[in-house]
Amino acid sequence: MKKHSQRAWLFVLPVVLLVAFNALIPLMTVINYSVQETFGNNQFFWAGLRWFEEILQSERFHAALARQFLFTFTILIIEVPLGVIIALSMPRRGLGVSVCLVLMALPLLIPWNVVGAMWNIFTLPKIGLLGWVMNNLLGISYNMTVSPVAAWITVIIMDVWHWTSLVVLLAFAGLISIPDAYYQAARIDGASNWAVFRYIQLPKMKRVLTIAVLLRFMDSFNIYTEPFVLTGGGPGNSTTLLSIDLVKVALGQFDLGPAAAMSLIYFVITLAVSWMFYTLMTRNES
Amino acid sequence: MARVALENLSHSYSINPTNAADYALKKINLSWKDGGAYALLGPSGCGKSTLLNIISGLLVPTEGRVKFDEKDVTALSPEQRNIAQVFQFPVIYDTLTVYDNLAFPLRNRKVPEEGIKQRVSEIAIMLELEDDLSKRSAHLPADKKQKISMGRGLVRDDVNVIMFDEPLTVIDPELKWKLRSKLKELHQEIEVTMIYVTHDQTEALTFADQVVVMQEGEIIQSGEPVDLFERPLHTFVGHFIGSPGMNILPCHVKDNVALFYGHSIELEGPIIRSEGRCEIGIRPEHIQLGTNGIPAVVVRAADLGQHTMVQTLVNDTGVNVITDGKPLEAGTEVNLCFDPRKTRLYSESRIATAVAQ
Amino acid sequence: MSLELKNVTKIVGVETHIHPTSLTFEAGDFNTLLGATNAGKSTLIRLLAGLEKPTSGQVIWAGQDVTGVSPQRRNISLVHQFFINYPHMTVYDNIASPLRVAKLPRSEMDHRVRETAELLQLEGLLARYPDELSGGQQQRTALARAIAKQSKAIFLDEPLANLDYKLREELREQLPTILEKRGTVIVYATTEPTEALLLGGFTALMHEGKVTQFGRTSKLYHSPASLTAARVFSDPPINYAHVMKEGNLFRLDDINWAADGSASSLSDGQYIVAIRPHHIAPYQTKPSCVRLEGQVQITELSGSESIAHFAVGKHSWVSLAPRTHQYLVGERHNFFFDPEQCFFFNAASGVAVEESNHG
User: Fold this and answer.
1) Are the C-beta atoms of C96 and C131 separated by less than 8 Å?
2) What is the pTM of this model?
3) How far is CA B97 from the centre of its chain?
4) How far is CA A17 from CA A3, A32, B329, C59, in A?
5) What is the CA radius of gyration of chain B?
6) Domain CATH code at residue A186
7) In terms of DSSP bridges, do strands B161-165 and B193-198 run parallel, antiparallel, or are they unpaired?
C-alpha cells in the first residue's frame, strides 16, 4: 500500500510543478511588486499599501471598472439567452446535428487577435463590408473610430459573434441528455412549449448553464486581445476595459507597482463575482 | 374511458420494408373492452413497446388503424387521444413540488384551481403520497417518483386509456409487490382501460384480466392468466410463463402415437396434426417421480422451500420436475410419470392435440 | 483453501456500513449473500475482494493475512450487476484479456476461451463486439471472462439483476454447476430469496450491515435463528404476529389452536409466531389445520403460483399456493395453516425459541 501512495505522488508531481510555475510564482511576484515602488534601473522602495489606496480612489480605475461591468453584463444578457435559443432550435438527431455543431464551433477556432483584426477590417467605412453597407447603402453614419456608441456596439457584437457558440454547445449538451420519455410525458400531460421549456429543459440545462455563465463571466471580465486589436480602447477612453487599462499602466507607463496592485484588485473582484454567481445558481441543490 | 381496437396493424422502422424481417409488428388484430386491465407480455425486442407507442400515438403505424370507441384515432397525437402513459423510468418535473407535479396535467388543461385541489388530494391519498405533497420531487426515492408519474395519469378524469411501459423496472424488489398490488387496486377503484407492458410474468398475470403474449412482432396467444398457464397453445407460451417453464421434449409421431426416445407418451386427447417438428409439452409441476415411467438420471436438485426442483436427464434431454419430496442426490436413477391430462403434443410449436371428450 | 473475515468492520464517517462480522467461505462451495438493497452485501464483497480496506479486523486467505493487499495481487474475478466489457474488443478478446495479462501460451489460451464460451453458449458470437449483443449475451461475456481467468476467488454482485427473468432462470440453473466445478471461492450477492434457494450451497443472511445467520441454505430456510433472519429469507414477506400461550392453547386474537408436538413444551407467555406464506393454503391439507377466515384484499399470480393477501381482524396475511387459484377480491375465504409449520420467536428479542428449552 505504501509503495502505491508514493508512486501516486510521482504522477501528480508534473501538475503540481505546472501549477506552481503557471500561477503561484507569478502571483507571488505580482504581490511583491504591488507593495513596492520601482525606478528604471531595477531599484525597489517599500511602498506599503499606497498603490492600493491610490487605485481604489482613482477615477480612472472607477471608470474602467464601470465599463468592464457594463460590458460583461451586456454580453451575458445577450449571449446566454441567445445561446439557449439557438441550442433549442438546433436539430437533435441526424446529419443536421454535426453540420450545426461544426458551424457553431468555427468562431471558437479563430485566434483572438485575428477576430479583432477581422472585425476591424469588416467595419472600415471605406472598404469594410459592414462599414460600407451601413454608410453608403443604408445611409447610417457609422464609424467606430469616431463614435463611442458605434465602438461599443461593435465590440459587443464582435464578442457575441465570437462566444455565443460556447453557450450553444454547452446548452446543446444539456438538451440532448434529456431522455425522450420526458418529452413524450409532457406531450401526454398536455404541456405547452413554454411549459416544456420551463419545467423540463431549463431545469435539466441548469448545471451546464451555470458553467456557461461562469466561463463567459471570467473570460469577458478578463477580455483584452479582441477589443484592443479592434479599437485600441478608443475613441478616447470609451472602450478601455480593465485589462486594457492595466496594460496601459504597466507597459505604457511602466508603473509596475500600481499595475501589480491593480491586477490584484482585479483578481479579487473576478473571484468574488464568480463565487457569487456560483452560489446563487446552485443554491437550490443538494 | 374507451374500447380499444387494433385493425390489421403492422409497423416497420425502415422506410421501405421489403420482407417480413423488416417489420417490428406483423398484422396485429385486437379488440379490448372498456375498463379492462390488459397486459402485453414478451421478451425484449418482441414488439410490445412498439405496439404500446402506437396505441398511445407516439408512433404512427406503417399500416392499419387504431380505434377508440369506433373512432379512428390513427392520425391523432397523444394529447388529442386523451391517454396517459407511465414510462420505464420515472418522469417528474424536478423543480416542482409533488402537488404541482400532480396538478401539472390539469393546469395545462385549464381546470379551475378548486377542482385541481380536490382531485390531487384524492389521488394523493390513493397513492399514499399525501404526506409528501409539499416536498420538492427531485430528491424523493424512485418508488415515490414512479408513483408521481402514475398519479399524473390518474388525476385526469377524461383519460381514455392509461398505459404502463415496464413501470416497475427501477423499483426495489421488496417494494415491487406493493406497487404491483397498488396498481391492481387502483384499477379496481377507477375502472379505466389500462394496458401494461412487461417482460415479467408475475406483473402481467397479476395485473391483467387478459394477457397478450408476444414474440417477434406477433401475438402468440391472448387469454386469461389461468389459461396461459394451464393450457398453452404454443410452446413459447409454455416456456415463457411459469418458472421453470414447460418442458419441451423432442418426439416423433408414429401411427398416431407420440414417441419420446421410444417411450410412447399418453396425451390429453387425440392428435389432430403431426406435420413438421413435433414436441411434447409438459410442465414440471405435472411430472411425478415414480417406480414405473421413463427412466432418467438426476443431475441436480434444489430445495426451494415449499417444494423441490429436480433437474434430470433422459438420454441427452433435460427434464425439470417439481416434487414435494426431499432433494435427491445427483446421479440417482428415477422414473418420470407424466400426468396424461396435462401432456400435449405441439407440431411446429402450435398445439396439436384436442381435449378428450 | 478458504477465505475468512475476522471481526471485520467498515465505518465511513459516522455511519457503520458493516458491523463486526466473522465468516468463513470454503473453496468449492456456492456461497450466497442474501439481503435487501443497502443491507451491506456489496460492501462485504468489496471488502472480500480488497477494493475497500476494513476499518478494523482481518481478511485471511488460505491462512495468510491479506488485509490491505490490492485486488490486482489477489487473483480474483468480480462480476457486477452492470454488464462491463471492453467495448473495443470482440467477445473472444474480452474473454481472453485476463489470460493475455497472465501471459498464457497461445494454444492454451485459445483452448480455454473456447471451452468457457461453449459453457456459456457464446460459441457463435466470439467475433462480435459487445454493442452487437443483447443484454443477456453481454452479461454472459462478462461471466465468461471471470470464469476463464481461473482465479482463486470469484465474486458476483447481483449478476443477473438486469436480465430478463427467463434468461435469469436459465443462468441460475447453470451457474452453480459451472462454478462449483472450478473449486474456487464463490460469493454471490442477491436480493431474491428464491434465487438463493435455487443456487443452493450456503447462505449468509444480511440485514442492516449485520450477518444475521450463516449456514446451509436449506437449513436456514427451514429453521431461521431469528425473526429478522426469517423475514430476510422470505418472498413474499413472512406472516408474523404476537400470540399468547396459555396452558395447552395458543391464542391469536380470536383464533385458538392446540399446542401440539414440540410447541407444547414452551412455557406460558407471549411469543411471536411466524408462518411462511406457502404454509397458508386456500384449502385444508390435514384435519389438524387451523382455519383463518379472512377477506381477500389483493391477489397476485406468478404463473406457477397464486398469492392472496387477506385480512383477519386488524391483521393482514399472505398466502402463497402452488398453481392457479381463483379468488374474488372482497369475498370471504377460508385459509388454513398447519400448526406444525409455525416458527416461534421470543416476543422481546426476536430470537428463535428452542422448543426443548423450558422457560
Assistant:
1) no
2) 0.77
3) 34
4) 22, 21, 68, 39
5) 24
6) 1.10.3720.10
7) parallel
Interface with A, mutate which of B53, B93, B161 (most A CBs under 10 A) = B93
Print the domain residue range for A76: 59-282
Round to whole Å and give the CA distance between B339 and B347.
Answer: 20
Query: What dotted CATH number matches B244-351?
Result: 2.40.50.140
Cβ neighbours for C179, distance < 8 A, ≥ 6 positions apart: C30, C147, C154, C186
B260-295 burial: b if 16+ Cβ within 10 Å, else e:
beeeebebbeebebbeeebbbbbbbbbbbbeeeebe
A265 domain-assigned: yes
Q: What's the domain count of chain A?
A: 1
Q: Enumerate residues 6+ apart whose C-beta is below 8 A from B121.
A: B130, B133
**Per the structure block, which three cell numbers stand in for B141?**
426515492
| Radius of gyration in angstroms for the set of CA atoms belonging to chain A, rounded to a whole number | 23
Domain B1-82+159-169+193-242: which CATH class? alpha beta
Alpha helices in chain B (DSSP H): 48-56, 78-81, 98-108, 113-126, 142-154, 173-190, 201-207, 225-230, 235-240
Q: pLDDT tens across C155-198, in order?
A: 999 888 877 778 788 888 888 888 877 788 999 999 889 899 98
Q: Which of C199, C122, C145, C146 is nearest to C168 (CA)?
A: C199
Chains that touch A (3 or more CB pairs under 8 A): B, C
Whether A24 is in a domain gets the answer no
Question: What's the gap in Å between the CA of B238 and the closest CA on chain C?
Answer: 10
* B96 contacts on A by Cβ (under 8 Å): 199
Tell me, what's the ipTM? 0.77
B255: left (phi > 0), else alpha (psi -120 to 50), else beta?
left
Task: Determine, yes or no, domain membership for A137.
Answer: yes
Asked whether this chain's domains B1-82+159-169+193-242 and B244-351 adopt the same fold, the reply is no
| Residue boundaries of the structural domains of chain B | 1-82+159-169+193-242, 244-351
Residue pair C307/C277 in contact by the 8 Å Cβ criterion: yes
DSSP secondary structure, C38-79, as one string = TSSHHHHHHHHHTSS--SEEEEEETTEE-TT--GGGT-EEEE
The C-alpha atoms of residue C263 and residue C253 are separated, in whole angstroms, by: 19
Residue at A261 is within a domain = yes
- Calpha distance C95→C92 (Å, rounded): 5
Within chain A, residue ranges assigned H as helices are 2-19, 25-34, 50-57, 59-89, 95-109, 112-122, 129-132, 148-176, 180-188, 193-196, 202-221, 225-231, 242-247, 256-282
Chain B from 98 to 117: CB within 8 A of any A CB = 104-105, 108-109
Q: Note the pLDDT tens digit of each residue in A94-150.
A: 788 889 889 988 888 888 888 888 888 888 877 888 888 877 787 777 777 778 888
Q: How far is A8 from chain C (nearest CA, A)?
A: 14
| The length of chain A, given as a count of residues | 286
